[in-house]
Design brief:
heterotrimer, A mainly alpha (270), B mainly alpha (292), C alpha+beta (373), A: 270 residues, mainly alpha, 11 helices, C: 373 residues, Rossmann fold
Amino acid sequence: MGKRHPLILLMAGLGYAILYIPILIMIIYSFNSSRLVTVWAGWSTKWYGELIKDGQIADAAWISLVVAFWAATIGIIFGIMIGYALARMKRFKGRLLLSGMATAPIVMPEVVTGLSLLLLFISMEQLIGWPAGRGLTTVIIAHATFAMAFVAVVVQGRLSDFDVSIEEAAMDLGARQPWIFFTITLPVIMPAVIAGWLLAFTLSFDDLVIASFVSGPGSTTLPMLVFSKVRLGVTPEINALATMIVAIVAIGVVLANWFALRNQGTDKNK
Amino acid sequence: MTQRLKRYLVVIPPFAWLLLFFLIPFFVVFQVSLADLRLQRPPFTSIFEWDGWWPTNFTGDLENYWFLLEDSLYINSYLNSLKTAFFSSLVCLAVGYPIAYVIARASPNWRNTLLLLVILPFWTSSLLRIYALIGMYSTNGFINTTLMKIGIISEPLQMMNTDFAVYSAIVITYLPLMILPLYATLQKLDEDLLEASSDLGASPFKSFWQVTLPLSAPGIIAGCLLVFIPAVGEYVIPALMGGPGQLMIGKTLWTEYFNNRDWPLASSVAMIMLAVLVIPMMWLRNAQSVRD
Amino acid sequence: MSDPVGGKDRDAYLSIKQISKHFAEVKAVDDVSLDIRQGEFFCLLGGSGSGKSTLLRMIAGLEIATSGHIEIEGQDITAVPPWSRPVNMMFQSYALFPHMNVEKNIAYGLKQDGWPKDAMAERVNELLELVQLTGYGGRKPHQLSGGQRQRVALARALARKPKVLLLDEPLSALDKKLREETQRQLLAIQQEIGTTFIMVTHDQEEAMSIATRIGVMDHGKLVQVDTPREMYERPANRFIAGFIGQVNVFEGKVEGAGKAQKIIGVDTGGELKAAEHSELQDGSTVWIAVRPERVLLKTKSRGRAAKAANKSSGTLSDIMYLGGVTHLTVTLDGGKLVRTMISEHWDEDEAKLNIGDAVEISFEQRAAVLLDS
């Protein structure tokens, strides 16, 4: 199997095809003017118009954006702290437990995470009266928890490649912590931090299962709404909605990737 | 000393958060799994009473667990989930390996683009990607209408609510998680090794089988586990694409919780799922720390 | 040795007193004492793992000593944290802040000290001029060449006018040609500003050409401290003799005592005479070190030999022509290999020397150094 064996190229091409063809078909049919999803009746953007008029979808989208913003923001702050502690502090009590707790949410089945957080919130409500019922707060807490795990991994990875002597040089030149962290470390890892924030935001914005467990009556997120509609079948409105979400995420990913590449550029200073 | 105190200021807030919102919930789940169903809010009994700071009157039992063992529905759900996750991982590996290989051997410019094309679906909501797949598979979906138009088939094929639908959806959903670790190990693989191998007279196939494949083993293990673990607990795919007879444990848990409102039983289902997944999770952790 | 290596110096500016650093079971630096004078260009020389970098990092305060003291101008700074020490360091990787331009990199230390803006700008310009980078202030580190980055790192470390500048392998990332040029620049800058420099290096030629004094480290110990010339001419033991330049070492046995004492070469069979030594213990083993350029070569028709002793015969076994000089290897009759060299003017007709020629090698008594370890 040489460097570019045609058989391997063909297999890889097929792999990419099965990843993308369903989405491309969905995007094309979102511009179908017919209500019948099977019949192509010419190009139209009318379903996007319907979408914008649909107040229910707008509400759910707003809730998802608010949740994703706060979850990503809390996640990034705590995630940086975890990543920094694990990468820079070689020995402290509870290090093993912290690294375990910081990586486990990534692989934990969502139904288990959702159920366990829900039962915690109910037990806490009984014991101390907080959180009273479920709503935005509980969804944000749930999403922030797995967001910080993802950010911690990204930040820890970035800090392990980091030339420690840069921090030592700052110390040697008269600076102290936490000043060194804010003037040197954070600016240098900033691209990774931004990428981590975008990742956390997207994961929160996409989540259905955990949100279904811990949300309350007034906090139906966009994926929850989409799910309830999808159960009823394929419709052009959902095609349009899905296309818009995919477009937004794609832009976000390309931006994050751009940040990460720029990061590599400045890293060549060695 | 103060230096040490400042360091703990960094560790303690996230530590406390994860303790409260990640670790302690499992103890709560365990506690509820020992309780009984009741028709009040919350719909489960308390397994002890508080006497100041000390729990007393312990009334928990393993009734829910016995129930899980007696009713074949649950055992079948677990077995079917494990089977589905296992075979989906293998299919994922077969589909993902060539992609990872091509990316790792591509020129730097191509590599970034190809990698981005793998990461993009990973970031896109799996719900939407499954929805897109439904648009392909359904009776009046893209595949059936196209095939009928060409005249290959006269009756629409039944693709939704079949094993095929569930397996292919899992493969497509989790493919990026397979490709990324595979790519990471393949990319580190020194091309000189392959040249040395062929220089020493090995055929390209033999070089692949004896050099590339064994050296990419860490990536294979990590990739398979990254697909297997979440696939076992998957809810959305069996719920939307599987038939009513297709049991998967994530769906069973969901039904117990949302439809039957039997929280104690749902909790015991979750505890058993965790117990089943603990070994693959530890294995994944080891595989990843070895790779680093 | 009763006298500790690098011992007391009345003019000591930086004084290291019995310092040790242990990492778990490993003694990275083991009971090192060293005095460095003001304005010196001191080189710490050693292989990897010899403890030289650890010693430098302890002076900077980046490693905490397990035991011992460090004093500057008589003040104990052992417990002073790195950000308050009157020393600055130039890192091997340069450790430039990648997100700051050259000016901001250089000004970082001044900012910590609260310099007013005008004075800071003036000082930065002064430093840019010193390292010949005027006009590069706005560039980011990744827009500079390796040599330019090295100079920015130097300027940044000098900005706060440290009493001692520490340099950790500052030239190791540069290619050979640039390195030699940079050595000269470094020396010129050091002489211009008069700051005490302590440089760590593994390159003995670099140390020889640049240092006022060299300290050789091995396995955490400071083995010898001397000027380059003394180090070369009078190495303290076989390790130093072999580490600094090339050397031929002849093993010898001491026979007899008093006036009649003789050293008999184990490989040569003949008597070996060294420049100077006190009386040795009868029957003990000693070594005689001779630099290749001091080994004389005599063939049937040309060359000369030493007057007495230190003579041996063999055959020419290798000739390596290097332009200005020719390196020769002679296999003595007993099998020992001896290296020597001849410069071009010795014989214009190289072809007359052939492998396999019977030759006689010898060396003068004053060229031989006696080593007891």
